[in-house]
UniProtKB/TrEMBL annotation:
This is Terpene synthase metal-binding domain-containing protein. Residues 106-348 form the Terpene synthase metal-binding domain. One of its GO terms (molecular function) is magnesium ion binding. It comes from Eucalyptus grandis (Flooded gum). Keywords: Lyase, Magnesium, Metal-binding. Pfam families: Terpene_synth_C. InterPro entries: Isoprenoid_synthase_dom_sf (IPR008949), Terpene_cyclase-like_1_C (IPR034741), Terpene_synth_N_sf (IPR036965), Terpene_synthase-like (IPR050148), Terpene_synthase_metal-bd (IPR005630), Terpenoid_cyclase/PrenylTrfase (IPR008930).
């Protein structure tokens, strides 16, 4: 099991760890055919399905099995008491943060204005909790939920509800960031632009106060890039023309919303902005490659599932579908295997970024890895156990901590 866990840290060209992964996974799968007790089976299956490097599922799983393990000494009771006390403290903090987020969300009016869109502030907050695990980053978690929520809302505008002329107009308004032009928008888009403008300007002011540099111009450009990429997807689907798989993925990395969200985090965490020699006249943000690797992992994982699993009526394309159209004669299973290979390659590149010297802080790189780890749980539509863990964890955030 430890060898299998270690193999998850492989990088491109690391044949030894690749061999270790094949060897250890084969041995573990063979052990599952032996006469093992239920706890051993559970541990092996969890290791194979949820390696620590690439998933949060085992971190979210309850630890009730500890009391039943053979050879447990009396000190474990003290350890469990300390763990439970810490859990109550952290949960109380999460409840306060969740209350702040719910208050902001209700005051924004987006949930009431856009009945067609997803209304899932707790789920969006769970992204923030997963990315920023340090209890001391409470303010950052609350602020990060705001761009996350707008990515989901704007995605639904393009995929589910918006008409083509409205979407073109909305994209133009975001590109120009013009309040006067926004008056031409339908009410629901006008409301969305108002909230988007408020959180972007507020965010820029917060970063300026903390780090002495205002990234508002860059963030506006990234919102424009996101909307333009959504519009490209919409036009592909409206015309019935599937792009090449590589073109779809390149655009899909942007529509994942990850570059935009992690750009907010990039600025939140400082990242020696003053020393980056950033020219405010430039249109593009010099973001680290880790952000785009996480985006590719999310896009590919999500495309293994389906928008229908999110109870949406819209459709925004799929890498798998583009790949099958481009590679006539390939089976659906071979396409899935190809996607999993791409995800594995992205993880190897992400590992390399984290292990190599770079100008970005360890906490920021850890946050990026945490986002990638959360993807396999959030978008693993076929794994009901994984989704069950996610739902249980979400519910636990709303429970009275005194009852736990």
């Amino acid at each position: 099991m430890e060898l299998y866990e270690a193999s998850q840290m492989s990088i491109e060209g690391d044949d030894i760890l690749d061999e270790a992964k094949c060897f250890s996974s084969k041995c573990l799968n063979e052990l599952l055919t032996c006469d093992l007790d239920p706890e051993q089976v559970r541990m092996i299956e969890s290791t194979l399905r949820y390696p620590y490097r690439k998933s949060f599922a085992r971190s979210l799983a309850p630890l009730s099995f500890v009391n039943d393990m053979p050879g447990v000494n009396s000190w474990i009771e003290d350890l469990l008491e300390v763990a439970n006390r810490e859990r109550r403290i952290v949960q109380s903090m999460h409840q306060k943060e969740n209350h702040q987020i719910n208050t902001w969300w209700k005051e924004s009016g987006l949930g009431e204005e856009m009945k067609f869109a997803r209304d899932q502030p707790l789920k969006w907050y769970l992204w923030s909790i997963a990315i920023l695990t340090d209890p001391g980053l409470s303010e950052l978690r609350v602020e990060l939920v705001k761009p996350i929520s707008l990515v989901y809302i704007i995605d639904d505008i393009f995929d589910v509800y918006g008409k083509v002329d409205e979407l073109i107009l909305f994209t133009g308004v975001i590109k120009r960031w013009d309040d006067a032009c926004a008056e031409q928008l339908p009410e629901y888009m006008k409301k969305c632009f108002k909230v988007l403008s408020d959180i972007t300007n507020d965010f820029g002011n917060i970063i300026f106060e903390k780090h002495g540099w205002n990234p508002t111009r860059f963030l506006k450009q990234m919102w424009a890039n996101l909307c333009n990429a959504f519009l490209v997807e919409f036009q592909w689907n409206a015309s019935g023309t599937l792009p090449k798989a590589d073109d779809y993925l390149k655009n899909g990395i942007i529509t994942s919303g990850v570059p935009l969200v992690l750009a907010h985090l990039f600025f939140q965490m400082g990242q020696n902005i003053a020393n980056q020699s950033m020219d405010s006249k430039k249109e593009e943000v010099p973001l680290p490659n880790t952000i785009f690797l996480v985006a590719e992992i999310l896009r590919l994982w999500d495309d293994l599932g389906c928008a229908q699993n999110e109870n949406q009526n819209g459709y925004d394309g799929s890498y798998v579908e583009c790949y099958l159209r481009e590679n006539q004669g390939s089976s659906y299973q071979s396409a899935r295997e190809h996607v999993m290979e791409l995800i594995s390659k992205s993880w190897k590149l992400l590992n390399k970024e984290c292990l190599s010297p770079c100008p970005f802080s360890a906490p920021f790189l850890e946050a990026c890895v945490n986002a990638a780890k959360m993807v396999s749980l959030m978008y693993n539509y076929e794994d009901k156990n994984g989704l069950g863990l996610l739902q249980d964890h979400m519910k636990s955030l709303t429970c009275d901590h005194e009852t736990l």
